[in-house]
C-alpha cells in the first residue's frame, strides 16, 4: 500500500511537470511573452522587490509560528497537520498575485500579467487536486 502512494505521487509530479512545460510553451507563444529564467525573481521595480521580500518574511514567520504551535499541541490531535500546506499555498497565491498586479499596472506588461495568473491558476489547481487525493 505504501508503494502505491509513492508511485501515485511520482506519476502526479511527472505529469504535472509535463503539463506545466507544455502549458508554458503554449501560453508564451500565444501571448508573445519571453521565456523566464527558472527559479529566478522577476521584479518589476524596487517597490515590487520590497513588497515581495516583506510578504516572504511574513510567511516565513507564519510557518515558524505554525511549526511551534504544531510541536506544542497534543500529539494525538491532528488538527494542525495541513496548516503548513495552506500557508505555502497562500504564500504562492499572494506573491504571484502581487507579481501580476505589478506587471499589469506598473510595467504595463499586460500579457506577462495574464501569463503569471494562468501559471498560478494551473499550479493552484494541481496542488489542490494533490491535497484532495492524499487526504
Describe the structure.
- By secondary structure, the protein is an all-alpha fold.
- It is built from 4 helices and no strands.
- Helix 2 runs antiparallel to helix 3 (83-106).
Oligomeric composition of the shown chains:
single chain
Major sheet, described briefly? none
Strand content: under 5%
Principal-axis shape equals flat
Helix content: over 70%
State Rg: 18 Å
**Helix-strand string:** HHHH
Q: Could you name the ranges where pLDDT drops below 50 across 5 or more consecutive residues?
A: none
User: What would the average pLDDT be, to the nearest integer?
Assistant: 86
Q: How many strand segments?
A: 0
Global structural class:
mainly alpha
Distance between the termini: 15 Å
Count of helical regions: 4
What's the short story on this structure?
The protein is mainly α. 78% of the residues lie in helices and 0% in strands.
Quick tags:
about 0% strand; about 140 residues; mainly alpha
Task: Describe the secondary-structure layout.
Elements: H1 2-31, H2 46-72, H3 83-106, H4 110-133
Helix pairs in contact: 1-4, 2-3, 3-4
Amino acid at each position: 500500500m505504501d508503494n502505491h502512494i509513492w508511485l501515485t505521487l511520482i506519476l502526479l509530479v511527472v505529469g504535472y511537470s509535463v503539463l506545466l512545460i507544455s502549458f508554458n510553451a503554449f501560453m508564451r507563444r500565444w501571448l508573445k511573452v519571453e521565456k523566464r529564467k527558472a527559479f529566478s525573481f522577476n521584479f518589476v521595480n524596487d517597490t515590487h522587490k520590497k513588497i515581495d521580500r516583506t510578504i516572504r518574511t511574513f510567511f516565513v514567520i507564519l510557518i515558524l509560528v505554525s511549526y511551534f504551535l504544531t510541536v506544542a499541541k497534543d500529539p494525538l490531535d491532528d488538527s494542525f497537520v495541513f496548516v503548513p500546506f495552506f500557508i505555502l499555498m497562500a504564500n504562492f497565491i499572494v506573491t504571484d498575485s502581487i507579481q501580476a498586479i505589478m506587471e499589469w499596472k506598473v510595467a504595463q506588461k499586460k500579457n506577462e500579467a495574464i501569463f503569471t495568473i494562468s501559471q498560478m491558476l494551473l499550479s493552484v489547481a494541481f496542488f489542490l487536486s494533490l491535497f484532495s487525493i492524499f487526504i
